UniProtKB/TrEMBL annotation:
Keyword presence, Thylakoid: no
One of the record's GO molecular function terms: oxidoreductase activity, acting on the aldehyde or oxo group of donors, NAD or NADP as acceptor
UniProt KW keywords: Oxidoreductase
Protein name per its UniProtKB record: Aldehyde dehydrogenase
SUPFAM superfamilies: ALDH-like
Annotated ranges, domain Aldehyde dehydrogenase: 21-489
Record-stated family: Belongs to the aldehyde dehydrogenase family.
Active-site residue list: 263
Domain of life according to the entry: Bacteria
UniProt cross-references to InterPro entries, sorted A to Z: Ald_DH/histidinol_DH, Ald_DH_C, Ald_DH_CS_GLU, Ald_DH_N, Aldehyde_DH_dom
Length: 514
């Protein structure tokens, strides 16, 4: 992101506040670049504190005085289904935009990101149909009463997402918050905001939402994001991003005891068991690692390999990695695109140098692909290090790029201990033909999602989130919906007569006039 009002001749996308698109206070803008070419792609309004104040005020009024929190849940469900249909109708455009903005290969955005986002929105609509009244058992102590839980929306939600998997991240945020009757101030990443902006434009044009229910302020995290999450009129924060920023946000939320969900970093293991079917597992490990060029929070960035099959695994992983085509994300033949930015490439290259310095063995990759077509983009070759020590920084720190660490083990207990020996706990995969054994291992992994013979198992019916420093709370599934509601227990007394209320006598003497 570069702050500039003049250097790029592109019309700027506005902020979306109270149902209208507007320039930022002081007309500031920033430029968004295409990672594959390094060229400017768009300009966006850079919000200020005054803009955040206006957006929060709009969301506050839409929640406190507007119809949205009281709209019947089945009507909100219908609106979400219609938003999903908008995604479907505009899928090719959204896929291309996501590819250009995020550098994600068009094959991935066309066949995964956009259709998955649409599917997820339908599922949130379906979950929204669940009644907000939750029954409880009849209670007969001290006398008969009928009880239920009413699920209230929280109110104004501040939602912040990262640049990776930006379209699906947007759906994960907007879907459940809208489904449950909240209002929103949303901030996408400044590095890849365009698919979110396009979706919000589609929603705006459809007229499906009352004004003020959904607001968006673009701009830098430290400036716009931090002020937004600390805003005293915001009730709930839903943040996806790095653990480092997550810590800061939790501290900012503390003075007002704001509700917080955090979806943070990971260093997820792919655990090959000795009997893994390597014909499937080798490609599975590579899919887990190099999909989106390794820029996925739950990517399988550590691969735990039994010593007995280590050499064969190395040979086959390297042979398949050599076949991956790195290149232009818009080319349907491309398997691996660029990283999001030159800065991110520097970070990743720093880790590659560190891996060498730590004594890990570079097996493939490690550099930039050569050729004129790569010259301007932020490309890094798919890279694999062998003989990595699980306690080394290469194995412990989130790199967020295409760098796989192979770690040897001798028995399964050791593999489980190493899998858990990290500050993170987002995901894992276990590769075995013995499903019972794989389940036994899965249950001992301290992580929110474990795939057996699969990685990237993002299922909108299932809770997704992290143990330990990978986060707090869950997104998706029923658990994810409940993160956007505050329960009220409602007790309906069935003891019809004063005389039966003996416990009242503890304070009040029986009424003598009767
Ligand atoms: P990041 O630097 O933490 O930024 C994430 C978002 O927070 C961006 O919109 C950013 O704004 C904003 N932000 C930055 N500093 C802030 C602050 N002080 N206060 C409020 N907001 C602030 O993360 P990233 O580099 O974009 O994304 C990669 C990270 O996201 C990785 O750690 C990855 O594991 C994590 N992630 C987690 C999940 C999950 O579900 N667990 C999913 C995807 C990604 P700007 O960038 O516009 O300045
Ligand atoms: Mg971009």
């Amino acid at each position: 992101m570069t702050l500039d009002a003049t250097d790029v001749d592109l019309e700027a996308h506005g902020l979306f506040i109270n149902g209208a698109w507007c320039a930022a206070d002081a007309a500031r803008t920033f430029t968004v670049y295409e990672p594959a070419t390094g060229q400017p792609l768009a300009r966006c309004a850079h919000g200020s504190r005054a803009d955040v104040d206006r957006a929060v005020a709009a969301a506050r009024a839409a929640f406190d005085d507007g119809p949205w929190p009281h709209t019947p849940h089945y009507e909100r469900a219908q609106i979400l289904h219609e938003i999903a249909q908008l995604i479907e109708a505009n899928a090719p455009e959204l896929a291309e935009l996501e590819s250009r903005d995020g550098g994600v290969p068009l094959r991935a955005t066309t066949f995964n990101d956009i259709p998955l986002g649409m599917h997820m929105m339908h599922v949130f609509a379906e979950l929204a149909r669940r009644s907000p009244y939750e029954p409880m058992p009849w209670n007969d102590f001290p006398t008969l009463s009928w009880n239920f839980v009413w699920r209230n929306p929280y109110g104004v939600c501040a939602q912040i997402i990262p640049w990776n998997y930006a379209f699906c991240m947007t759906i994960w945020k907007l879907g459940p918050a809208l489904a449950t009757g909240n209002t929103i101030v949303f901030k996408p990443s400044s590095l890849a905001p365009l698919s979110a902006i396009r979706l919000i434009k589609l929603i705006d044009e459809s007229g499906l939402l009352p004004k003020g229910v959904l607001n968006m302020v673009t701009g830098s995290g430290p400036e716009v994001g931090e002020y937004l999450v600390g805003h005293p009129r915001v009730d709930k924060i839903a943040f996806t991003g790095s653990t480092e920023v997550g810590r800061k946000i939790m501290a900012i939320a503390a003075p007002h005891i704001k509700k917080v969900t955090l979806e943070l970093g990971g260093k997820s293991p792919s655990i090959l068991l000795p009997d893994a079917d390597l014909d499937k597992a080798i490609d599975g490990v590579l899919f887990g690692m190099f999909y989106h060029a390794g820029q996925l929070c739950e990517a399988g960035t550590r691969c735990l390999v039994p010593s007995a099959i280590y050499d064969e695994v190395v040979e086959r992983l390297v042979q398949r990695t050599r076949q991956l085509r790195v290149g232009d994300p818009l080319d349907l033949a491309t398997d691996v695109g660029p990283l999001i930015s030159h800065k991110q490439r520097e970070t990743v290259e720093g880790y590659i140098a560190l891996g060498r310095a730590e004594g890990a063995r570079l097996l493939i990759g490690g550099g930039r692909p050569l050729g004129a077509s790569y010259a301007q983009g932020s490309f890094v070759e798919p890279t694999i290090f062998g003989e990595v020590n699980n306690r080394s920084r290469l194995a412990q720190e989130e790199i967020f790029g295409p760098v796989l660490a192979l770690i040897r083990y001798d028995d399964v207990g050791e593999a489980i201990a190493m899998a858990n020996d990290t500050m993170y706990g987002l995901a894992a995969s276990v590769w075995s033909q013995d499903i019972q054994q794989a389940i036994d291992v899965a249950r001992r992994i301290r992580a929110g999602t474990v795939g057996i013979n699969e990685h990237h198992v993002l299922n909108p019916y299932a809770p997704f989130g992290g143990f330990k420093e990978s986060g707090i709370g869950r997104e998706m599934g029923v658990a994810g919906m409940l993160e956007y509601t505050e329960p009220t227990h409602i007790h309906v007394d069935f003891q019809q007569q004063r005389d039966g209320k003996l416990w009242w006598d503890a304070l009040l003497p029986p009424n003598e006039e009767e």
